[in-house]
Amino acid sequence: MSMTKSCKSTGEIKQQFSIGVNDVTRVLEQMEPISESGKATQDSTIGCGGCKDSLLQLQAVLLSSNCDPRWLAKHVPSLASSRGVPLIFVKDKKGGSLALGELVKLKTAIVIGIKAKGSGINKLVAEILEKI
Description:
Mean pLDDT: 80
Number of helices: 5
CATH class: Alpha Beta
Structural class: alpha+beta
Oligomer: single chain
Strand order of the largest sheet: 1-4-2-3
C-alpha cells in the first residue's frame, strides 16, 4: 500500500508531509525539545514569534541515506532525536532520494517529515514504527 494513495493532490501531500531539508528543519526547530527525563521543556516557544505552525508535530522523519553532499542534512538526525521524533533512513537500489521523491510525487527528496495529523498515513507509520 502506498503512503500517498489517499493523497490525491499536491496540496493534500503538502498538508501531510514536510518536504525538504529546510521545511523539515523549520518544523523540528518549532517543536518542543525533550529533556533528559523525556518531558518537553517549557521555554521552547521562544523565538517562534507566535507562528501558527508552532503546534505542528512530526510523527517521523524519513532521511535519504545517500544524501550528497552529506553536510546538507547532517543536522537532521540530532535535531530529530532532541525532539523525540523517530528517524528512518531510506536506502534502495535507486538511491534513497529518488525513492523519497516518488513518495511525494517529486523527482527527488532528501528529507521528508510525516506530520502527525491522525490520518490513515499516520496509522500506517505507527504500525511500521511498532515493528522496528
